[in-house]
Structure formats: C-alpha cells, structure tokens
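Our preliminary data section would be incomplete without showing what the modeling component actually yields. Below, a chain of 387 amino acids is followed by its predicted structure, encoded as tokens that our downstream tools consume directly.
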Amino acid sequence: MAEALAAVKRDLGRDAVILHTRCFRKGGLFGVGGRQMWEITASRNVNVQPRRVRPLGPSVRRSQSAAPAVKVIDGPAVLPEPVAATALQAPPAGEELNRQVGALMQMVEKLVRRQEHAGAPAVPEELFETYLHLIQQEVAEDIAAELVAKVRQSLTGDQLRDKALIDARLGDLIASMIPTSITTIPPAKGRPHVIALVGPTGVGKTTTIAKLAANIKLRQKRRVGLVTLDTYRIAAVDQLRTYAQIIRVPLKVVTDPAELTEAIDALGDCDAILVDTAGRSPSDAERLDQLRAFLQAARPDEVHLVLATTANTKAIERAMERFGPLGVDRLILTKFDEAVSFGMVLGIVRRMNVALSFVTTGQDVPDDIEVSEGRRIAGMILSGTLQ
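Predicted structure:
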C-alpha cells in the first residue's frame, strides 16, 4: 500500500491527497480465495496536504493521462483535477496485517470525510504524520488540528523537517493544555479539609481514596479520617475498612445526609476527611439527586470527579455531563496502566474546564497514584506508552 501511495505522490506532487479508498478481492470463487486489492484515488488542490505512506505490495496501476481523469467504479465520476487511481495487490499476511491495514483505512476515510466539510483545516505535509499520530492516540480531531496549526506557526520550513524539534514543540503545547492542581491540606482552622470523590461505578474510587488517605498520612504527616457512603456494596465497605485498618485511620459508614454531618463533626480533630461516595450511573437521576444531598451536607472543600481512561468516549462524555453540575472542581483519571491510548485526556480536561489533580497507574496502595503533571502526560501522548 505504501508504494502505491508513493506513486500517487510522484505523479501528483506533494499536495496530493487521498479522495477515496476501496478494498476488494480479485479472482477466487464466490468471494473465497483470490487476491486482496486496494484502490486509491487521489487529487491535488484540496484543503489537506497529507504525507503519503509507502505501499505494502508490488503491483501498481495508475493513470498516465495529464488531462482531468474520469474514474469508473460503479459508474462514471468526473473529477476536476488530474487523478491517480491506484490499485495494488496485497497478499494476506495474517490477522495483525489485516488489523493494521483496517485501522489505516478507517483513519484515511475519517480524514477524507473531514476534508469534505467547508473550512476543514489545512495540514502541512511535513506535519501530516504528526497529525495521524495524534488521531491514533484518540486526540479529538479539532484539538489535533489546532495543535498542528500552532506547531506550523511556530516553526520555520527547515525546522519542520526536524522531528525531535517538532515533538518538543508539540510536547510544550500539549502540556500547556492540561491544567493541574496540587491538593495541599491547609493548617486546621476549626474544620477539617473535606475532599469528596464522585463518579460512575467501576472507575476505582475506593482504591483511589485509600491511596490518597495513605499519602496524606504517611507522606504529608497529616491526620486523616475516612467516610464512606457506599453502603450499596458491602464488599466496597469491607475493602475500605481493611485499608483504614492497615494505614490506621478512622472510618465512618453513613447512610443518609444527617449521619454524614455527624460523622464529619466526630472526625473534627482530623486535618483532612476523605469522603468515598457510591458509584452512580449517569442515567440514574434519582441516585444523582441523593448524591447531591450528601454533598450539600458534607460541604466539601474539593469535589473530584473520578473517570477511568479505559472507558469509551461516549461513557466519559455522559459522566462529565451528569456529574459536572454537582460542584466538581477537580478531576482524577484512573487506570492509566490499562489504557491503550492517552490522547482523550486533552478532550476531557477541555470539556470539563477543571484542573487535573491525580492520575492512577495501578492497583498498589499507596504507590500507584501521582500528582498530575502536564509534561508527563504529554510524553505519554507522544510516545503512546505509560512512561
């Protein structure tokens, strides 16, 4: 596939872009067997100027006409610019090859759809691979285009050929887009510093709150109390009770807002109180109203929304929409060690418009939690790995 794309670039120049791609089989019987073929149609003078990849197979067929080409698949389609229609043979090479080719096809088709809309951003050829990497890392397309445009504006032509320089500039830009917040426990002023964690079920709130409690006590040397509202899951209460016993902090279990107020008063000699709320489905309006009543009783100084980086985009967006109005002012992202990509962080922090406070990178208590750092997350997005 890469050689065919390179042929398109040779024929049509650096500004050539893919307009259409098609995968089909040639030969065989009733669709079984035969050779897998790829057909690529490209043209000049469109908004996006992509860097083309080099093809997977040897057989290349392209238009030799210098006049505007007519491409026929299931009927004629006259194109306004000279077009190279390229087909190439790619013999089957296992599931991994098919997966990679399929992912590339989806990416190219997505870019084609974007360019069809008026005002689609121009992507310089020198930065097209950078743009593709951001998309592969699940950076939202508008954010990826914004980052590439800023890199283009800040670097000269020669600098745009220096990948290390491009990555350094991109890292600076990504880090600047991730606001962070460090939780510090202020000196006692008659009332403990109350921190509440909220979020959907299954994101790791209980483990995260145990990590926070251990770090505040063992590393910051402050007195900590725990309160749990998660009486719906006996196992969660037992889990937090075990953690509380290990790190030797008091734990209160409450069932209604009045008991929560009493529990906070009873823990008045603590420097900080961490409140573990029950996981709520973003679709359960009644339970969310109950959670709102608990938070009003707790009067927390900080409300952290806990989201898992392993969740799909729609689930994350739904959680942000429903939990955001509960007074969320910080964000904790969990399960970085299980994430397949990290670019969604940029979309989450932009959508929530709150600071990222902590990220978790495993199950170990108290070690696998980190104060968020924009530079570190930028490195994860650029490398595609947990650094």
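Confidence is low (pLDDT under 50) at residues 48-89, 116-120. DSSP finds twelve helices and 13 strands in the chain. Preliminary results of this kind motivate Aim 1 of the renewal.
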